[in-house]
Specification:
Length: 356
């Protein structure tokens, strides 16, 4: 039976990435060595790193004045590195979910972190509107997509202070105007590659303005100067990311991917709206994520939650259980998930409706 991978992360990878990575594990760049054992100082891996950085810049149309670096530690390390490097006195945070809350918590360790708005009052089921960002903030932080609660910011912020964005779960899924941001960071394990590497896109002129001492390893300037080679980078994860970016380029880049993602999400949201058994957790279509579609059983069918979960699993639907803080179901529709998997899930939902 074919398996359909809806895991929220680590998540589905393109078949191209998996096949090319297998080849690299056996023989990396014709060296006769595996990418798992190659030196990060080797000519072949330096070429790989440089090409991966160039692909990031190309896919997102990164303007001059920005650097791309690859680090370990996941997005969670960036929750601390961002305020450590950018916050002299004050920062502003839009709190739209669990990861945004964790980022906000870390920022409070380094100064006056201000919550400009939050959707916690309704279990993060919407994106706050009409908030004001303090003009004296050193930066404004947003989380563009919320994997747990299924909301997404679909427009680039337009504010008068530098913007830092956690794009871990929707980077490369749509075009973004990088010039509207001073810093973008993203853990790889959604749309880029296997867990273990984080991509950071940073405007150089935002650095060097804090008065605090920054540990060498946690200073973005260290890694910019060393071209992501200050210490041993996550070699395997960078190589796999290179393959995914090549796949993305071959498909037409982020504009083509956005079209595909909108089609997939529309199909599934339409079925959730039509099917009497289910309701979406995010009511406003403008706030609904194209990456993580969250839904629950209608009140009168709550007792069918586990039976549906078991039924879907028996049909090859993997990873659709909702996060424990929301319950219900979550179908993650990342770039590598084919439309056929969405159609298969919809057929399962229709079949279960007929049985009940």
């Amino acid at each position: 039976m074919k398996k359909h991978n809806f895991y929220a992360g680590p998540s589905i990878l393109p078949g191209y990435t998996i096949e090319k990575t297998i080849e690299g594990i056996k023989d990396f760049a014709g060296t006769g060595l595996s990418v798992l054992e190659i030196s990060h100082r080797s000519k072949e891996f330096i070429e790989c790193m440089n090409d991966t950085i160039a692909l990031v810049k190309e896919m997102l149309d990164v303007p001059a004045g920005y650097q791309v670096i690859f680090l370990g530690g996941g997005a969670s390390l960036q929750f601390a590195m961002v305020p450590m490097n950018l916050m002299n006195k004050k920062s502003a945070y839009l709190v739209t979910g669990e990861w945004a809350s964790k980022a906000f918590k870390e920022a409070k360790l380094y100064g006056d972190a201000v919550e400009v708005a939050s959707s916690k009052d309704k279990n993060f089921s919407y994106i706050p509107k009409n908030y004001t960002v303090p003009a004296d903030a050193d930066y404004f932080h947003v989380t563009t997509n919320n994997t747990i609660f299924g909301t997404q910011l679909k427009k680039d912020p337009d504010v008068a202070v530098p913007v830092a964005a956690d794009m871990s779960s929707d980077i490369f899924s749509r075009p973004v105007d990088v010039s509207k941001y001073s810093l973008i960071y993203a853990g790889a394990q959604k749309n880029l590659g296997p867990a273990g590497v984080t991509v950071i896109i940073i405007k150089e002129d935002v650095l060097g303005k804090v008065t605090r001492p920054i540990p060498t390893m946690l200073d973005y300037r260290t890694h910019i100067k060393a071209e992501s080679m200050f210490n041993t980078p996550p070699v395997f994860a960078v190589f796999a990311a290179q393959q995914t970016l090549r796949w993305l380029k071959d498909l037409g880049g982020v504009k083509a991917m956005e079209k595909r993602n909108k089609e997939k999400a529309a199909l599934l949201y339409d079925e959730i709206e039509r099917n009497k058994l289910f309701v979406p957790t995010v009511k406003d279509p403008e706030d609904r994520s194209l990456m993580n579609v969250c839904f629950v059983m209608a009140d009168e069918y709550k007792e069918l939650e586990k039976p549906f979960s078991d039924f879907a699993k028996s049909k090859g639907m993997i990873g659709i259980q909702g996060h424990r803080s929301v319950g219900g179901f979550r179908a993650s529709l990342y770039n590598a998930l084919p439309k056929e998997s969405v159609i298969a899930l919809i057929e399962v939902m229709k079949e279960f409706e007929l049985k009940n």
